[in-house]
Each structure stands twice: as C-alpha cells, then as structure tokens.
## 1
Amino acid sequence: MRLLHNYHYAAAMLLFCLGLHTVIVRRNIIKKLIGLNIMETSVFFFYISLGYLEGGIAPIRTGGADPARMVNPIPQALILTGIVVAVSVTALALSMVILLYRQYGTLDVDRLMREEEPEAGESGKEG
Amino acid sequence: MKKVAALLFISALAVLLLYVVASMPPMGDPDNPTATHVIPRYLERAEEETHTVNVVTGVILNYRGYDTMGEVTVIFCALAAVLAVLGRERRGVIHGFVDRSEVPASVIVKTMVRFMVPFIILFSVYTILHGETSPGGGFQGGAVIGGSMIIFTTIFGLYESSRRIPLKVRAPLEGAAVMGFFLVGSLGLVGGGNFLTYAWPRVAQGLHPSLVVWLTVLVEVGIGLGGAMVLTSILFAMIREEEEIAPAS
C-alpha cells in the first residue's frame, strides 16, 4: 500500500498537524512558537524525504562516486535556506514576546486579549 | 468547545493530507519526478561547472547564488528587526544579566564549558573551510559558533562573554555575509561576466579552478562569520536587561 511505503511523508504530515494543533489550542505564546517550529520542521522533513533515493549516497563527488546513485541535492540546498528563515522568524517572534512580557507581565493569549483594550485607551489619552 | 472544533478541523486536515500522500509517487524511486528533470544534469556536471566537489555547496553558492544572497539578507534583516524591537547595548557599556536559576552553575560545568568552547570553535572553522569538499559550509559553521556562544553566555553570563566579543568587533562583522557575496559578485562584473558568475571572460577563457574554489571559500567564510555574529548579537539583545523583565519572586 502506497501510504505505508510513503511513511516518511505520512509522518511529516502528522507532525505538521501536531504543530498546528499546538498553535491553535495552547494559550501560552511560547508554546505557540514551539508549535510553529514543529510545523517548520515537518516541512523540512517532507522536503528532505522527497529527495531520498533508495540506497542513495551523499551528493559529494569524491572517490569516483556514481552520480546516478546520489540523492537529490536541490531539497537540501532549499532547506538550508528554509532553516535560516525559520531561525530568523523565531528570533523576531521571541523578541516581540519579550517586549509583550515586559509590557503586560503575562504570556497568556486570553488574558492579553482582555487587557488589550484598557491599555490601548490609556496610551491613547497620553498621546 | 473551541478545543473540540480545533480537533475536528485538524483531523479533517490530517485525513486530507494523508489522502494526498497515498496518491504520491513512491518514495526513493529513481523515476520520481523530483529526481528526473534537472537533477541528473546538476549531479553530473556540477564538478566541472562549479569546481566544488560537494554538489550541495555548488547549488547554493553557484547555481542558486542569488537565492542564497537573498537569504543572507533575510538574516541581516532579522537582526535589524530584533535590534529595533529590543534595542542594542550602548558602545562601551557592559550590561549584566540577572541569573535567576535556583542552582548556580557548578565548578564542573564551568570547567567543562571553558575546556570545550575552543574545540567547538575549532570544529566550526573546519566545517566552514571544508564546505566544498565535505558536508558543511558557512551556515552550519556559523550556527556552531553561535551555539558555542550561547553555551558560554548561559554559563558565565553576559558580562564575561560581551567582554570577549565586544560591540566594536561584532558590529562590522554582522554584515560580513552580505559584503562577501557582494564583493565576489562584483568581481564577476569586473571580469566581464554577469553578477555572481565565476567565469570571467575578460580576464581568461575560464578561471583557474583553484581560484574559483578560493572565491567560494571566501563567500563561505563571510557567511560563517556573519551568521555567527548575527546569532551572537541576537542572543545578547535578548539576554540583556535594562530593567527587570520578571517580577522578583
């Protein structure tokens, strides 16, 4: 059966759903960010699995390695890009979380949404 | 209620995705569409066209050089945005950070970190310089240096680590990746070719392969240094405290 043979892809999809569940259900922003990182990792895993070749070798041409047996180098190069972008997104999001915590003293999304309106009104009066 | 709705939505999404997976081509098959079109050409001709043994490095720095240059710009922009949000330490001022852990780092941990960090940095230098002949490259090596700085800073504190890498060293090196790319790319223009090409028709029929390798290594070193300094600066910006961010418990 195709689904069982493609178990890498299936695992990546399940990991993606797990990350999405974390992002939707958890109320702590840090945990939401962890879920976002799980989703990113699942996409990387999916891409790298796409480049897999049965019995393949690393795409490094030393010692007369046969190019026909090498795994696909394009997903690896693309995912290197993707990892860097993921790190950048995480760094920016975490710095904003630090700012939020300094401002409100909580990371709970529900409490942040409730506290948002009076704070905005006060700063509006000051301005 | 919200949780049940989320669970239902995610289950539907999972079923849909698994249905798509079940109709995808089998994994690892050499006749897959992902392995047929442009890939054999890259694998067969990368060595003579890019003069790098590692095909992944050839793809990153040569075939898709523009892509990687954009990516390097993305890290630089991330650093700029983090500094815009959190602010940067003033020049010449060393900030401390409050260690709130229940158990202070023991002598064993401190000795081990002090012992290991030089070796970690040595390994990252190897990773950067051997990027075109073995697995590795600028991004990986830079991330390893950044990781060693994270270990050092969490154990010894911001004071010790920003004394070792002060702002006046970090600030010029943060743009090293972008500058390295721009420099090597402009050399291609000077040589009569296109931006970021390593074939210089005005100078010679084709550059000597060893010179192309050296240019590749130059870009890799730039990426490694720039990535390491960007990671260190982001860490310092996050760990620095001007006022207490958490109420003292």
## 2
Amino acid sequence: MLTFVVKRILSAVPVLIMVAIIVFLVLRLSPGDPALMIAGPSATEDQLQALRESMGLTKPLLQQLFLWIGQILSGDFGVSLISGKPVTELILDRFGPTLALSLSTIVLAVAVAIPLGVLAAWQQGKWIDRLVMAGSVLGFSVPVFIVGYILILIFARGLGWFPVQGYKPLSDGFGPFAVRLVLPSVALSFPYIALIARIVRTNVIEVMGEDYIRTARAKGLTEGGVLMDHALGNAAVPIVTIIGVSIAMLIGGVVVTESVFNIPGLGRLVLESVLARDYTVIQTVILLFSTIYVFINLAVDLLYGLFDPRIRY
Amino acid sequence: MLALGNPSTLVKATVLSLCLGSISFAAQAETTITAVMHAPLRAVDPVISTAYILRNYGYMVYDTLLARDSAGKPQPQMASWTVSDDGKTYTFTLRDGLKWHDGTPVKAEDAVASLKRWSQVDKTGQVMAKLLERYDITDDKTFVMTFKEPTGIALIALSKPSGVAPFMFPKAVAETPVGQPITSTIGSGPFKFVAADYKPGVGATFVKNTDYVPRSEPADGLSGGKVVKVDKVVWTTMPDPMTAMNALMSGEIDMVEQAPHDLLPLVDGNPDLQTIVFPKQVNQNLVRMNFTLPPFDNPKIRQAALLALDQQQMLDAQVGAGSKYGKVCASVFGCTGLYPSTYRADDIIKAHPAEAKALLKEAGYDGKPILLMHATDLASLAPQGPVIAQNLRDAGFNVDMVSMDWASVVARRANKQPVAEGGWNMFSTTNVGPDVGDPIGFIGVAAGGSSAWFGWPDVPEIETLRLDMAKASDPAKQKEIAEQIDHLVIDNGVMIPMGEFQQVMVASSKLKGEISAEAPVFWNVEKAK
C-alpha cells in the first residue's frame, strides 16, 4: 500500500510539471499586459517598460518559466503582480472560505443524496423513484445562481433567518461561521445531490439484481438489511468515485456561488486574477487545484480497497 | 446621597446605573460605514494608476495641497499660495498642524518630492513639468515653483481632482521610482488605512485619523474642512450587484457606490434607502478610431462614423430607455463642466445613415471590415459594442465586432500593428466628468500622434492650443481655447462623444452629509444610530 501511495505521488510530479508549463505558456501567450492594467492609459512607454521590468516580465519567456519553477521548488510562489502581496498569503486568505464551503456542501450533498438514491432504487418504478428522479433533473437543470437568489429571497430577505451574504472564519465563533454557510451550501449542493443520488440509484439497482442479494433475501434478511448491509456496500466503489470527483469539481468550481453569496474564496481569486492578468496568482492557484485533484484521486483509489476487499495495492 | 436600604431606591439606583452603563456603551460604540465600492481595491499606489478606486483610496488616506470647491475653483487645502506679479512664481505655504499618520510633521520637501513623482505620470503634471523651471524649498513649510513663462497651470494642476490627483506622500515614499508601485500606506489624510485588515480584492478598512486637523471652512466640493464623523469606513467588494442590493436592503451594508441602473426600481419608495447622484461624477461615453490604419486614416471616413452613430440608442442600452440618468451631449469636454459646447450637435447626437453612406462613397470606402473591440465584462461598456456595430452597419460600414474582456481591450488597443497582426480600428470606453472637463489633462483630446492616447491622432493645432491653455490664466481666454479645441476634435474625428450618464449611489437613509464632489468621499458623512 505504501509503495502504491509513493508511486502515485511520484507519478503526479510529471503531471503537475506539465500543468505548470501549460498554464504558464497559455497565460503568457494570451492577450493582456499586467503593466497596462496597473498603469492605466496615460502611462508612457518608458513607465510601462519600467513596470514590466520590476515585475520580471521583460526576461525571455523560457527564463521566466525556469525562474518560476525554481522559485516553486524552493517554496517561494512569488508576489502578486497587482497587489504586491505574497501569493501564498493571498491563497491562504482565500483557501479557508472555499474549503469550508466545499466541505459543507459535499457533506450536505452526501447526507441527502445517498438516502434518496437508495430510496429511489428500493422503490424503483414507483412514485417515490419518479419524484427523486424528477428532482434530480431539476437539480441538474436549474443554475446554482438561480437557486441562490431564490434562497436569499425566501430565507434572508423574507424570513430573515440568515444573512444575505458574507463569510466569517471559524475563529470568529461557530455560530457566525455556520449561519453564513447554510444558504450557499444548500444552493451549491443541488446539482451534487442530483448527481450522487442518480449514481447511487443506478448502482444499487444493478447490485440488487445480483445472486448474493437473492441469497441474502433467501436467508430471511429484512429488506433494510439487504439494502444497507449488502447492496450499498457493494455499490460503493462508483459512489466513492463520484463523491471524489464532486469534491474536486467543487473546489475549482465554486466561483458563481462565491460571487452570489459574497464569499471571498479561491474561485473569486482566480476570476479576479484572470481579469487583471495577475499571472503569478493564476499560475499558483491552478497548480494548487491540480495538486488537490491528484490527492483526491489518490484518496479515492485508497478508499476502493476499504469498500471492496478484492482491491489490494 | 442614596439610601441603599430602601428597596425602591435600590431599584432606581440599579436602573440608573444600567442606563448610565448603556449610555457609556453607546458613547463607546463604534460608528462604521460599510460601503460596496464600484471596484475592489487591489493596490495602494494612487499615483501609478488611473483606476478610480485608487483615486478614491487616495482621498481617504492622503491629502492634496489645493482642492477644488463646488464651483470648480482651486482653494487652499494643505497649503495656501501667493503668485508673483509676473505670473511666473508661485509660493506655497503649508498650514499648521499637518502630520503624517506616523506622527511626523509634513514638510515642504515631502510636497516637492510628491509633485515630482506625480508630474512624471499625470498628463496635466507632464504639461506642468514642461513649463516649470525649478522647485525651491525655502523652509520646512514653504516651497516655490518658478515657471519659464507666466502660467495658470500651477493652480489647475495642484488642484486636479480626478484621474491621478496630486496626493502628498512622505519624501521617502515619494522618491520611489514611478515604475515601482509604492506599498506604504502612510498619508496625512483624514483616514488611516488599517493595513492588517487589508485583503486585496476583498476589503479595506479605514479608521478616523484623530490627529487630523481639518480646515476651519465648511466642506465645499473637495475643498474646506474634512471633518470625519464616523469611526470607521469599511470598503467591501461584492462581485454580484444583486447581492449588494439585497445586502443593502437587509441592512447588512450602508451603501452601494454605483448601483446598476436596472436594479434601481428595487429601491423606489423604500423609506430606508436613498438614491444620490453626484453631478460632477458624470460619465462620458466616447468612441475612438485608429488614425494610423485604414479606413480611419481617411478623415472623411472618420466623419462618416461620426454621422453614423446615435447617442440616444447607446444611452438607452446602458441606462434604460427613458431613464433620467442618461443625457445626450455633443460637447467634447462634457455638458456639466466649464466648457460645454453645442458645436455640430445634431451630427454628433443623432444618426444620419444616409449622409454617412454618401460620405463613405465619396471617400472610396472599400468595404474592408472595421475591427471593433467590444469589452464584455464591464457593465457600462458591455452594451456599447452592439449599438455601435449596428449604427455603423446601417450606414454601410462592414463591421467585425470582436468581444473580449477589458484586460484584452487594454492590451490590444496599445498595439499599433495592422489588424491582421493584432491591431484594431475602433473601441469605445467611458471617462468621468472631472477628467473629461480638463482640456489639458483629458487623454481623449490629446493629439500628438505617437504620444497621444490609443488611436494616435496627429493634429498639431490641438497640441498648440492645449499648451496655450496651460499658459492661460484668464478664464475667458481658457474658455475660448477650449471651444477651439472642441471644434478641432470633432472636425478631425479625434474622438466621438456618445452621451453622458450618471452613476447612482444607493445608501441607507441613516447616512447624511454626503459631499457632492468629483470623487466619492467619506468625510462629513454622518451615520444615525
């Protein structure tokens, strides 16, 4: 197992290097100039050139790339071209809100989706199944920002139960932290509930047709026991995969929710940095996202062994 | 003396002490204004950039030597001045009580160093530097600016309210090269920046500078006493305007600096909210053509474009049909400033597709597509491209509208190459009234060829007149020169004015005392409990 983990981590290194090179080149070859964005329209060419020099943008492209990779390897992610603040500090400031939103969303999604999926599978073809499936189509189809606005209208503006927007770190107290995460997490969980519930339903239905399920029933197990002890466990591998993918998608894809609920997370940082051509920040955040993807995939692979004893590394 | 043995007295004493306690608590409670500004603060050098959020930040943290009053007249702020009889020597004397946020006194050497840095960057400052012979520091509180010839530029430049305003920095900070953004936030202004709370792109906090000594005159425009009446101002960023409006209506924030026009009906009739328009913060739309590339290297084709465009259609797309916040305006220097003009108003305001077509034919337009850059990520610019494109098509132009984000427009508009190599023919943007109304500093009228703003118009008569304007000190003469520049700009198609629109601030009714000035400022603003 340890060998497997080490191998997987080592195999991730070339992937991350490729990601770093691609992101670097795509950014530098796309239109945009951070010096122009900072200096504004009145700047003379000399001033722009001086700004570019102070940002290290006048060096040959390959030299910039190697300098950047060298910096990363020494643990230095550089400073933002726009704000001048260390990139690590900017990312750390924004990582907490995104992590909190992503985790609360996935916990909510799993807690709702698995029972719904199992219920739909158990009641296959009946009205409950149809209701769950119709709900999942709705969850997929309605954009998150629409759900967000509706939740704000009802629960923040109408009933006044939750604030409209904002984020407070856990260090400010659990109450202020939690109350600001409820609406964004509910809004963001909709498509994931739909996705996970569908996968759970499909896989449980498939497993329910297996011989060992018939055997379990023949042994006199209750339907609940059959579902929970035999069906769900055997259907777990694809479910864990989809949950892992969902977490990865969440961390990189929360920008709309962060905007609607004014959560200062990584999604917004990426968007702002792209619009301002803040190369150092974009490069580092995308590298971080890639690393998270790699480690989530690794965690999912390791979890396979937990749910399916036949899988050994 | 209270007889505590009496139960009723004891109750009274308890109630009294609770009341006193609550009064004391109320007296100590902080008054904070939470404001959603039009853009996030991501940098802290208000000289190196023309971003308006940095100008606004500058007015919080820094101070200016002079400031314009509500009539646009320069007034003393940090300094008073005298002018020599020959109009060439200006002596500035700093007023008493000026201190940097670290407690050290503001000196004349700080002011001179700040002006030197600023005049390398700002268009008006650059003109001033050309006319200036030297600075002399007489003592800690006095410095002298000696010009090569009589001029009125010193007062115009030192009171410049917008674009890059001449803020004062400590000498050590002001000596930072202009190619290097400053990181210090030590100013001498009415608010102190709380560096520990600053999160670029997320929020910034300013606290009242208790050491600030305001002028004794009442606040008037950007001049007069900058009396701070709250303890703290928090600027927060909300990327979604709908969220900002919801937060305002829920009482979570106190104001939205620029509310989208389409969301204004949400606050109509709401007694808890007020809408405020600052006339001087008007925005001018303008269209810019590239003089160096065909077909707009042909003056007749530029005139055809001018005749093709329709201001009202543009304004309808931006602020809504029939909105009171949009206004047609033919004047190059804006209709709210000192130099309004109605020269060729009908040509500029209304579309004349038939005349434009005839002019295109006469000019021999070959039907080559016009590359129009269309910025899609800024609310005020996004509606412009499609309106311009359709107006031009109606007049017989072949238009290739390329949609992109503003950063791409900013990069591409600096490209002087042919269209096939990344160049361009036309783009549109907006500028604020205070910048537009300044014939010396307004980038839209500079016409010095390669040194001009993007589009690089080369009209030497305009440059001569701009320099004459800088030298003139008589308002009547300045007006006459401004009129001549206006006519030359229109006749040469240096830029096409496309109407004006007002941004609308929506604020809690608890806020009072907002100053009508060229920039949103927070001194004099009170917040009721």
## 3
Amino acid sequence: MQHIKTISKGTLKQTDGKGCGECQTSCQSACKTSCTIANQECEQTRIKRPR
Amino acid sequence: MIHTYKFQDINVVLDVGSGAVHVCSDAAAALLRACEGQPQADARPPEDAFSAAEFASAREEIDALTRAGLLDAPETGEDVLLPEDRGAVIKALCLHVAHDCNMRCAYCFADAGGYAGARALLPLETGKRAIDFLLGRSGARRNLEIDFFGGEPLMNFEVVKALVQYGREREKDYGKNIRFTLTTNGLLLDDEKAAFINEHMDNVILSLDGRPEVNDRCRRTVTGEGTYAHVAEKLLRFAKAREAAGKLYYVRGTYTKYNKDFAGDVRHLADLGFRNISVEPAVSDKPEPWALAEGDLPELFAEYDRLADFMREREQAGQPISFFHFNVDLEQGPCAYKRVAGCGAGTEYVAVTPEGDIYPCHQFAGEPAYRIGNVLTAGGFENKWFDAFNKAHVFSKEACRGCWAKYYCSGGCHANALRMEGDLLRPHRLSCAIERKRLECAIGLVCARALTCP
C-alpha cells in the first residue's frame, strides 16, 4: 500500500467476552495512582512465554 | 471511531474498535482527520492541500482497510465484554504493614504514612487474618497478589517476613499461588532485607524522584533532611541485584509543579543505571503548591514528547530503558474484559490496614464512609460499595464512551474520580489528559520502532 502501513491488526476482537481474571491487578504493578491497563501482561501469554 | 495524531514525524492512526494501529501518509491522515466523528462516506478532505489523485488513492486504501475491519470497526458492546455474573471474588490485597513512615514527603496522599489516623504497625496476627481473608474469598482464581505497602513497610519487616512464610504455607492448602510485591523508600534497606526481598518478591517498587535537588525538595526525613544521599546508591545496588536475578523492579518517582521538566529526572535515573522507570504526576483536590493543574498540560505534553525522544535515543544507542507508561503491547496485551472492567478496586482488589479494617483500595484507607469490614471480625465483611465500583466501567462513564483511549486505561482511577470530580462515574479530567498523551507516545514509539526495524 502506498498511503497506509498497518503496524498492528489489534487484538480487541479476538478477546471479546473472555477474561480469566488471573492477570495482575493494574494498581499492584508500579503506579498505585494512575490506571494504565494497556501495559499489563496477559496471564495466558505469561505462562506460555519462555523464562 | 478512529484517532489520528502526529508522533514525532509519523502520522499514527488508532482504530479504537479493533485496536489496529497504522501509520499513514499526510494525505491519508488529512482524510482520516476529516472523518473523525462522522461516517467516513461523508468526510470531506481539506481543499487544495493534496491532489485529487492523491486523495483518491488514499481513499481506496482507507476503504480497503475499512472492509477488512481494521478501520472504523464497530465497537463490541457491553453485553459481550462485561458478562454480568462474574462473582465477587477477591484476588489482590494491598496490605498496609505500616501506617507510619520514616520520610515526610510533601505530596504524600497518606498523611506521611498515618492515613489521617494513629500511627501503627500491622500486628502479625492481623496480617495472617488478612491473608486468610484473601485466600477464603478468592474463589476459583489461582493467582493472588499481596502488596506490602505503607507508610514504609520496611519499618515492620519482621512481620513482612513472617507473613510471606505464612502465605507460602497457606497457599498450598488452598491450591493458590500468591505473588508478593513490596513498595519501599529504601531508607531501611540493607543487604539482609535485600536478599529476602529478592528471593520472595515478584516485583518491587523503589521510590525515588530523580535528580538530587528534585528528590530532596519533596522527599525528606522526619527531621527535614533530603533523602537522596541516603537512598540513591542503595536503591541502585538493589535494582542491579534484581536485574541479575532476572526479577522485576521499578524505580518510581513523583513529579510535581516544581519539576515539570521531569524527563530530566527520567534521564538522571537512566544515567544512574536504572532500567525500569516510572514517574507519576502529583495531583490534589486541595490547592497545594506542588499539585499539577490543567494549565500545566501544554508543558507536560511537550515534556512527554521529550521523554519519548530520549527513549528512542537510548534504544538507538543500544541502551534501552523501560518507562512504565510508555509500555504497550499491541499484540499480546490484556484481553478486552480487562480493558473495560476497571482497576478492580472495591471488587477484586481491597486494602487492609494495621487495625484490620478493609477498604476498596489503599487510596480510601482511613475514610470511615469507605470502611467495608474488618478481617478480625467473623463475618465482618459487607461490601456495601461493590455495586458502585463494579458498575464504574468505561461503558457507564459518559466521558469514557466517546474517548479513544478507553480500552487502554479502563476508565481511570476510582479514587481520583471521587476526590477530584466528586463522582465515581466522572474520571479526573487532568489525569485523563495526561493518560491520553502517554498513550499517544506509547503507541507512537511502537510505530517508530516498527518503521526502523520492519
């Protein structure tokens, strides 16, 4: 494409209606005041990722 | 809904409904900006800026991405994303092991550790009952969290150690996995405590504001002395030990009206050797001299741009740093439910004080109207605020419904909404504006990296 390059197709549609609740509570990460969700890791991804 | 903006020299396009991110030409950006807030077919591009042929080819690409569901995608409804019956389980505890502090920071939300009440340390037995409370109410959730918080938790470190041991024993009985974290100012950190923390804590938050003069203006000892010289070297040594052990930490600063040039503080922390950095704005519902206001926003926005430039410089020099609010994972980030449900305060996350009192989160500790129980009393938990917090999600907040950033902040901090705007359903405008700017930088950085390394 000449005008537009897609960087990410997004994941919002893939995860509709799911949510296991096992991931970290956002306020327990580093902020304790501001609520940022997008930098939180999905627990299912965390389990699969090699450590 | 789409959001088009300029980051550095890149035109970034976020498709809100799908989460797709694109970069585009100036002609396509002009077309897309003309589309915002109206059906794409009705959009009229600005005249004379580009040739008709340019607009026509840009239009073709926009139409193709729209058909593919990557532009102007419809947003999924509340009924799909927020199933009603998720149960009232609690999975995260902010455990106030010390309502006392050995610092007197000017901007402390917790009344220098006292939370507007008596200074007290958490008794071991009360801490154990808090852990029992968490385990007993965690339902089917396997991964639980306990953050040792204060005040300054190292003032009560023997209790912290005993509670970690107790948690490790009890989690087996329940088939759970407790992740411990700790937030400290570092004054009492020594090698023995560091070794214990490194072994047992999943994450550690180290409080330091940045440059010595900035840190010492607000972060002082009880006798009014600056604290930088007491803690900076210790915190760095500790952070390096965490890195060597492959464990997570963040050095976390607060920026105020006194250092709106806070990118200089991030740079200072990075130059010292810290790799994981967070700085947060200080806000207040009172006219404090340090509190940031909406009039400061243009300067703050420019500073976040400078910080993003600095991040790129470090990356290109092979010395990347992680800035908490510029981290965004567009491919494997949180699920849609997590993005809309809110922070969990008052529903799955609560705080427990040294007296055993339970509050919706640490920000409410000491406010009688928000006391929802006590872990020392049998049957002493009646969460009268559950419905209010449970329903405080992005779909119920008018300001969020029309906001492009709602799937990235999940509606903002409940305590800020109540304190600053007087309503759980009205997110704090200043915090929202800052959050949107941070997200623009975070997504912009992903694009800049992708364009450098396709």
